[in-house]
Model the fold of this input.
Amino acid sequence: MARNTKTHQGKKRAEREARQRQAHKKRLMRNGAIVGVVAISVAVFLVATWPEPDVGSTEAEAWDLPALVGDGRYALGDFGGEPTVAVFFASWCTVCEGEIPEFLAVSREIGDRCHFVGINSQDNGRGGGDADKWGITGEWPIARDIGGRNQSGLSVDTFGARGMPLTVIYTPHGTVAHIQRGG
Done:
């Protein structure tokens, strides 16, 4: 009798864990779909409707960050002429795990009409492995937020992020069009 009770309890626990995994997967998929739809909508809107700047006007933010891997640098000015989506991420961010593959799919669908750049922020140095895991290495430029490990840097000081994820969408002229904090 005791053996059947243990088997029954184990089966119930396994069923409960399976339901929890299924619910978590559904949340990730829903959040990813929402991010994808918003990103596509904003990018298409910006490309289609943003007016040309006045001659001599420079309204761009001016970040310039080191590459996550190697000696290179990435600056917002490198992406001029098209909308740019800066996707901030961290290795500990579980929401990022669901969002970044969705952003990658959107970036592939949009192609050259919009630039995407990944920015590893508020992290412990493992961002390169996550960029590889999510498939954005080689697809997007990947920068490292300066000072992000110490709760400062571009994500916190400039955009007021108190966690991840953070997404900043820029116009083709480098001005901030939208900031999305959190998932």
In short: Confidence is low (pLDDT under 50) at residues 51-60.
